[in-house]
Protein backbone atom coordinates (compact mmCIF):
# COMPACT_ATOMS: atom_id res chain seq x y z
CA UNK A 1 0.00 0.00 0.00
CA UNK A 2 1.48 3.41 -0.99
CA UNK A 3 0.33 6.98 -1.02
CA UNK A 4 -1.08 8.46 -4.20
CA UNK A 5 1.69 11.03 -4.34
CA UNK A 6 4.39 8.39 -4.02
CA UNK A 7 3.03 6.13 -6.73
CA UNK A 8 2.13 8.84 -9.25
CA UNK A 9 4.84 11.44 -8.70
CA UNK A 10 2.45 14.20 -7.68
CA UNK A 11 -0.19 13.56 -10.37
CA UNK A 12 -2.92 11.19 -9.31
CA UNK A 13 -5.96 9.71 -11.05
CA UNK A 14 -8.00 10.86 -8.07
CA UNK A 15 -7.24 14.53 -8.57
CA UNK A 16 -10.70 15.04 -10.03
CA UNK A 17 -12.38 13.61 -6.92
CA UNK A 18 -13.74 16.04 -4.38
CA UNK A 19 -13.18 13.53 -1.64
CA UNK A 20 -9.37 13.41 -1.65
CA UNK A 21 -9.35 15.95 1.16
CA UNK A 22 -12.48 16.20 3.28
CA UNK A 23 -11.11 19.08 5.42
CA UNK A 24 -8.12 21.37 5.71
CA UNK A 25 -5.90 18.74 7.36
CA UNK A 26 -2.56 17.61 5.98
CA UNK A 27 -3.30 13.88 6.20
CA UNK A 28 -1.62 11.79 3.48
CA UNK A 29 -4.19 10.25 1.14
CA UNK A 30 -3.59 6.50 0.90
CA UNK A 31 -4.49 4.36 -2.13
CA UNK A 32 -4.09 0.76 -3.15
CA UNK A 33 -4.47 -0.81 -6.58
CA UNK A 34 -7.36 -3.26 -6.65
CA UNK A 35 -5.53 -5.62 -9.04
CA UNK A 36 -2.09 -5.47 -7.37
CA UNK A 37 -2.12 -4.76 -3.62
CA UNK A 38 -5.72 -4.94 -2.43
CA UNK A 39 -6.10 -4.41 1.31
CA UNK A 40 -7.23 -7.18 3.62
CA UNK A 41 -10.20 -5.11 4.81
CA UNK A 42 -11.55 -4.63 1.31
CA UNK A 43 -11.16 -8.35 0.57
CA UNK A 44 -13.23 -9.24 3.64
CA UNK A 45 -15.93 -6.77 2.59
CA UNK A 46 -16.14 -8.29 -0.90
CA UNK A 47 -16.26 -11.81 0.56
CA UNK A 48 -18.85 -10.61 3.13
CA UNK A 49 -17.15 -12.37 6.05
CA UNK A 50 -18.70 -9.93 8.50
CA UNK A 51 -17.65 -11.56 11.78
CA UNK A 52 -13.99 -11.68 10.75
CA UNK A 53 -14.25 -8.18 9.36
CA UNK A 54 -15.69 -6.85 12.63
CA UNK A 55 -13.00 -8.59 14.70
CA UNK A 56 -10.32 -7.03 12.49
CA UNK A 57 -11.82 -3.53 12.77
CA UNK A 58 -12.02 -3.71 16.57
CA UNK A 59 -8.61 -5.34 17.10
CA UNK A 60 -5.55 -3.60 18.50
CA UNK A 61 -2.99 -2.96 15.74
CA UNK A 62 0.47 -4.47 16.12
CA UNK A 63 3.37 -2.03 15.99
CA UNK A 64 5.00 -3.70 13.02
CA UNK A 65 1.88 -3.81 10.90
CA UNK A 66 0.89 -0.29 11.91
CA UNK A 67 4.23 1.02 10.69
CA UNK A 68 3.55 -0.47 7.25
CA UNK A 69 0.11 1.17 6.97
CA UNK A 70 -1.74 -2.08 7.55
CA UNK A 71 -3.48 -1.07 10.81
CA UNK A 72 -7.32 -1.15 10.78
CA UNK A 73 -7.55 2.63 10.84
CA UNK A 74 -5.17 3.02 7.91
CA UNK A 75 -7.04 0.43 5.83
CA UNK A 76 -10.38 2.11 6.62
CA UNK A 77 -8.90 5.35 5.26
CA UNK A 78 -7.32 3.80 2.14
CA UNK A 79 -8.82 4.47 -1.28
CA UNK A 80 -9.23 1.33 -3.37
CA UNK A 81 -8.84 2.20 -7.06
CA UNK A 82 -9.04 0.14 -10.25
CA UNK A 83 -7.52 1.16 -13.55
CA UNK A 84 -7.85 0.31 -17.22
CA UNK A 85 -4.91 -1.23 -19.07
CA UNK A 86 -4.06 2.21 -20.43
CA UNK A 87 -3.95 3.63 -16.88
CA UNK A 88 -7.33 5.34 -16.97
CA UNK A 89 -9.28 5.23 -13.71
CA UNK A 90 -12.27 2.88 -13.76
CA UNK A 91 -13.54 3.49 -10.22
CA UNK A 92 -12.30 4.49 -6.77
CA UNK A 93 -13.94 4.31 -3.35
CA UNK A 94 -13.33 3.91 0.37
CA UNK A 95 -14.12 0.69 2.27
CA UNK A 96 -17.18 2.45 3.77
CA UNK A 97 -18.64 2.95 0.28
CA UNK A 98 -18.12 -0.73 -0.45
CA UNK A 99 -19.57 -1.83 2.89
CA UNK A 100 -22.81 0.06 2.15
CA UNK A 101 -22.99 -1.38 -1.38
CA UNK A 102 -22.53 -4.93 -0.01
CA UNK A 103 -25.05 -4.18 2.79
CA UNK A 104 -22.72 -4.74 5.71
CA UNK A 105 -24.32 -5.17 9.15
CA UNK A 106 -24.79 -2.20 11.44
CA UNK A 107 -21.87 -3.14 13.74
CA UNK A 108 -19.40 -3.30 10.84
CA UNK A 109 -20.49 0.08 9.45
CA UNK A 110 -20.35 1.60 12.91
CA UNK A 111 -16.81 0.29 13.49
CA UNK A 112 -15.63 1.76 10.17
CA UNK A 113 -17.10 5.18 10.98
CA UNK A 114 -15.42 5.18 14.40
CA UNK A 115 -12.05 4.43 12.81
CA UNK A 116 -12.40 7.01 10.03
CA UNK A 117 -15.33 9.50 10.49
CA UNK A 118 -14.17 11.57 7.49
CA UNK A 119 -15.41 8.81 5.21
CA UNK A 120 -18.97 10.12 5.75
CA UNK A 121 -17.99 13.32 3.90
CA UNK A 122 -15.99 11.57 1.15
CA UNK A 123 -17.32 11.18 -2.41
CA UNK A 124 -16.38 8.30 -4.66
CA UNK A 125 -15.47 8.66 -8.34
CA UNK A 126 -19.18 9.09 -9.18
CA UNK A 127 -19.64 12.02 -6.71
CA UNK A 128 -21.55 9.73 -4.35
CA UNK A 129 -21.47 10.15 -0.58
CA UNK A 130 -22.11 7.17 1.70
CA UNK A 131 -25.62 8.56 2.32
CA UNK A 132 -26.34 8.59 -1.43
CA UNK A 133 -25.30 4.93 -1.64
CA UNK A 134 -27.39 4.05 1.43
CA UNK A 135 -30.54 5.30 -0.32
CA UNK A 136 -29.48 3.81 -3.70
CA UNK A 137 -28.82 0.28 -2.36
CA UNK A 138 -31.53 0.22 0.30
CA UNK A 139 -29.52 0.20 3.52
CA UNK A 140 -31.34 -0.73 6.71
CA UNK A 141 -33.03 1.97 8.76
CA UNK A 142 -30.43 1.66 11.55
CA UNK A 143 -27.53 2.11 9.12
CA UNK A 144 -29.29 5.04 7.44
CA UNK A 145 -29.88 6.68 10.82
CA UNK A 146 -26.22 6.10 11.78
CA UNK A 147 -24.98 7.83 8.63
CA UNK A 148 -27.41 10.74 9.03
CA UNK A 149 -26.40 11.18 12.65
CA UNK A 150 -22.72 11.40 11.68
CA UNK A 151 -23.23 13.83 8.80
CA UNK A 152 -26.80 15.26 8.73
CA UNK A 153 -25.84 17.97 6.22
CA UNK A 154 -25.46 15.24 3.59
CA UNK A 155 -29.25 15.20 3.10
CA UNK A 156 -28.90 18.46 1.17
CA UNK A 157 -25.75 17.56 -0.81
CA UNK A 158 -26.21 16.69 -4.48
CA UNK A 159 -24.53 13.61 -5.87
CA UNK A 160 -24.33 11.92 -9.26
CA UNK A 161 -26.19 13.89 -11.95
CA UNK A 162 -27.18 16.54 -9.38
CA UNK A 163 -29.54 14.29 -7.41
CA UNK A 164 -30.19 14.57 -3.70
CA UNK A 165 -29.69 11.54 -1.48
CA UNK A 166 -33.38 10.55 -1.13
CA UNK A 167 -33.88 10.80 -4.89
CA UNK A 168 -31.64 7.76 -5.43
CA UNK A 169 -34.27 5.60 -3.72
CA UNK A 170 -36.35 5.63 -6.90
CA UNK A 171 -33.82 3.32 -8.61
CA UNK A 172 -33.22 1.18 -5.52
CA UNK A 173 -35.03 -1.65 -3.68
CA UNK A 174 -36.96 0.75 -1.43
CA UNK A 175 -38.42 3.53 -3.58
CA UNK A 176 -41.12 4.33 -1.00
CA UNK A 177 -38.45 5.55 1.40
CA UNK A 178 -37.46 8.32 -0.99
CA UNK A 179 -41.10 9.30 -1.49
CA UNK A 180 -41.61 9.58 2.24
CA UNK A 181 -38.51 11.73 2.61
CA UNK A 182 -39.64 13.90 -0.30
CA UNK A 183 -43.09 14.38 1.26
CA UNK A 184 -41.45 15.28 4.53
CA UNK A 185 -39.15 17.78 2.81
CA UNK A 186 -42.10 19.32 0.94
CA UNK A 187 -44.05 19.71 4.16
CA UNK A 188 -41.08 21.23 5.91
CA UNK A 189 -40.45 23.58 3.00
CA UNK A 190 -44.09 24.63 2.83
CA UNK A 191 -44.23 25.01 6.59
CA UNK A 192 -41.09 27.11 6.57
CA UNK A 193 -42.52 29.30 3.79
CA UNK A 194 -45.78 29.80 5.67
CA UNK A 195 -43.89 30.44 8.88
CA UNK A 196 -41.74 33.11 7.27
CA UNK A 197 -44.79 34.80 5.73
CA UNK A 198 -46.69 34.73 9.03
CA UNK A 199 -43.62 35.91 10.87
CA UNK A 200 -43.18 38.84 8.52
CA UNK A 201 -46.87 39.75 8.79
CA UNK A 202 -46.87 39.48 12.58
CA UNK A 203 -43.72 41.55 12.92
CA UNK A 204 -45.19 44.34 10.80
CA UNK A 205 -48.45 44.24 12.75
CA UNK A 206 -46.62 44.17 16.06
CA UNK A 207 -44.45 47.09 15.05
CA UNK A 208 -47.47 49.12 13.96
CA UNK A 209 -49.42 48.19 17.06
CA UNK A 210 -46.44 48.89 19.27
CA UNK A 211 -45.95 52.36 17.81
CA UNK A 212 -49.63 53.25 18.19
CA UNK A 213 -49.78 51.87 21.72
CA UNK A 214 -46.65 53.74 22.66
CA UNK A 215 -48.04 57.04 21.40
CA UNK A 216 -51.37 56.43 23.18
CA UNK A 217 -49.59 55.68 26.44
CA UNK A 218 -47.50 58.83 26.19
CA UNK A 219 -50.59 60.92 25.52
CA UNK A 220 -52.43 59.40 28.51
CA UNK A 221 -49.43 60.01 30.77
CA UNK A 222 -49.31 63.67 29.71
CA UNK A 223 -53.02 64.14 30.33
CA UNK A 224 -52.88 62.50 33.76
CA UNK A 225 -49.89 64.61 34.77
CA UNK A 226 -51.69 67.78 33.71
CA UNK A 227 -54.78 66.81 35.73
CA UNK A 228 -52.62 66.02 38.76
CA UNK A 229 -50.97 69.43 38.60
CA UNK A 230 -54.41 71.09 38.43
CA UNK A 231 -55.61 69.19 41.51
CA UNK A 232 -52.46 70.13 43.45
CA UNK A 233 -52.90 73.78 42.50
CA UNK A 234 -56.53 73.78 43.62
CA UNK A 235 -55.68 72.13 46.93
CA UNK A 236 -52.93 74.67 47.57
CA UNK A 237 -55.22 77.57 46.75
CA UNK A 238 -57.96 76.14 48.97
CA UNK A 239 -55.54 75.75 51.85
CA UNK A 240 -54.23 79.30 51.49
CA UNK A 241 -57.75 80.72 51.42
CA UNK A 242 -58.76 78.74 54.47
CA UNK A 243 -55.64 79.86 56.35
CA UNK A 244 -56.25 83.50 55.41
CA UNK A 245 -59.77 83.35 56.81
CA UNK A 246 -58.68 82.02 60.19
CA UNK A 247 -58.42 84.08 63.36
CA UNK A 248 -55.15 84.46 65.18
CA UNK A 249 -56.00 81.65 67.59
CA UNK A 250 -57.00 79.31 64.77
CA UNK A 251 -53.81 80.07 62.85
CA UNK A 252 -51.81 79.32 65.98
CA UNK A 253 -53.63 76.02 66.40
CA UNK A 254 -53.12 75.18 62.73
CA UNK A 255 -49.40 75.94 63.02
CA UNK A 256 -49.21 73.69 66.05
CA UNK A 257 -50.87 70.85 64.15
CA UNK A 258 -48.47 71.36 61.26
CA UNK A 259 -45.47 71.33 63.60
CA UNK A 260 -46.71 68.14 65.26
CA UNK A 261 -47.11 66.52 61.88
CA UNK A 262 -43.54 67.42 60.98
CA UNK A 263 -42.30 66.01 64.30
CA UNK A 264 -44.23 62.80 63.71
CA UNK A 265 -42.69 62.43 60.27
CA UNK A 266 -39.23 62.96 61.76
CA UNK A 267 -39.95 60.35 64.43
CA UNK A 268 -41.11 57.84 61.81
CA UNK A 269 -37.96 58.50 59.78
CA UNK A 270 -35.83 57.94 62.87
CA UNK A 271 -37.69 54.71 63.64
CA UNK A 272 -36.89 53.44 60.17
CA UNK A 273 -33.15 53.64 60.89
CA UNK A 274 -32.01 50.05 61.39
CA UNK A 275 -31.31 49.36 65.04
CA UNK A 276 -28.43 47.36 66.39
CA UNK A 277 -29.51 43.72 66.83
CA UNK A 278 -30.29 42.65 70.36
CA UNK A 279 -27.70 39.92 70.21
CA UNK A 280 -24.94 42.42 69.37
CA UNK A 281 -26.08 44.82 72.13
CA UNK A 282 -26.07 42.04 74.74
CA UNK A 283 -22.63 40.96 73.61
CA UNK A 284 -21.29 44.53 73.95
CA UNK A 285 -22.74 44.87 77.48
CA UNK A 286 -21.21 41.54 78.50
CA UNK A 287 -17.80 42.60 77.13
CA UNK A 288 -18.04 45.87 79.09
CA UNK A 289 -18.87 44.02 82.31
CA UNK A 290 -15.94 41.64 81.80
CA UNK A 291 -13.58 44.54 81.16
CA UNK A 292 -14.72 46.39 84.34
CA UNK A 293 -14.36 43.21 86.40
CA UNK A 294 -10.82 42.72 85.12
CA UNK A 295 -9.90 46.31 86.01
CA UNK A 296 -11.39 45.98 89.51
CA UNK A 297 -9.58 42.69 90.11
CA UNK A 298 -6.26 44.23 89.00
CA UNK A 299 -6.73 47.22 91.37
CA UNK A 300 -7.63 44.92 94.29
CA UNK A 301 -4.53 42.81 93.69
CA UNK A 302 -2.41 45.98 93.78
CA UNK A 303 -3.87 47.04 97.12
CA UNK A 304 -3.30 43.63 98.67
CA UNK A 305 0.33 43.62 97.51
CA UNK A 306 0.94 47.02 99.14
CA UNK A 307 -0.57 45.97 102.49
CA UNK A 308 1.43 42.74 102.48
CA UNK A 309 4.63 44.68 101.87
CA UNK A 310 3.95 46.95 104.88
CA UNK A 311 3.14 44.01 107.15
CA UNK A 312 6.10 41.89 106.19
CA UNK A 313 8.89 44.14 104.88
CA UNK A 314 11.71 42.60 103.08
CA UNK A 315 14.77 41.74 105.24
CA UNK A 316 17.54 44.30 105.22
CA UNK A 317 20.99 43.39 104.04
CA UNK A 318 23.50 42.60 106.90
CA UNK A 319 25.74 45.46 108.05
CA UNK A 320 29.34 45.14 106.95
CA UNK A 321 32.01 46.47 109.32
CA UNK A 322 35.18 48.18 108.17
CA UNK A 323 38.03 46.62 110.21
CA UNK A 324 40.57 49.14 108.98
CA UNK A 325 39.13 51.93 111.09
CA UNK A 326 39.98 52.39 114.82
CA UNK A 327 37.23 52.91 117.35
CA UNK A 328 37.46 54.44 120.88
CA UNK A 329 36.41 52.06 123.58
CA UNK A 330 33.12 52.90 125.18
CA UNK A 331 33.05 53.65 128.98
CA UNK A 332 32.44 50.78 131.28
CA UNK A 333 28.84 50.41 132.37
CA UNK A 334 29.90 50.55 136.09
CA UNK A 335 31.39 54.01 135.69
CA UNK A 336 28.78 56.73 136.06
CA UNK A 337 29.69 60.10 134.65
CA UNK A 338 29.21 63.11 136.88
CA UNK A 339 26.39 65.39 136.02
CA UNK A 340 26.92 69.10 136.00
CA UNK A 341 24.65 71.12 138.13
CA UNK A 342 22.39 73.48 136.45
CA UNK A 343 19.58 73.37 133.91
CA UNK A 344 18.89 74.71 130.49
CA UNK A 345 16.76 77.70 130.01
CA UNK A 346 16.22 78.98 126.58
CA UNK A 347 19.16 77.09 125.34
CA UNK A 348 21.66 78.49 127.82
CA UNK A 349 23.24 76.81 130.86
CA UNK A 350 22.33 78.54 134.11
CA UNK A 351 23.70 77.82 137.56
CA UNK A 352 21.23 77.01 140.21
CA UNK A 353 20.92 79.42 143.14
CA UNK A 354 21.42 78.16 146.60
Automatic annotation (TrEMBL):
InterPro entries: Espin/Espin-like
Region (Disordered) residue spans: 283-354
CC annotations in GO: cytoplasm
Positions with biased composition (Basic residues): 337-354
GO molecular-function terms, A-Z: actin filament binding
Repeat found in the keyword field: yes
A Gene Ontology biological process term: actin filament bundle assembly
Keywords: ANK repeat, Repeat
Basic and acidic residues bias locations: 285-314
Record-given protein name: Uncharacterized protein
Biological source species: Asterionellopsis glacialis
Lineage: Eukaryota, Sar, Stramenopiles, Ochrophyta, Bacillariophyta
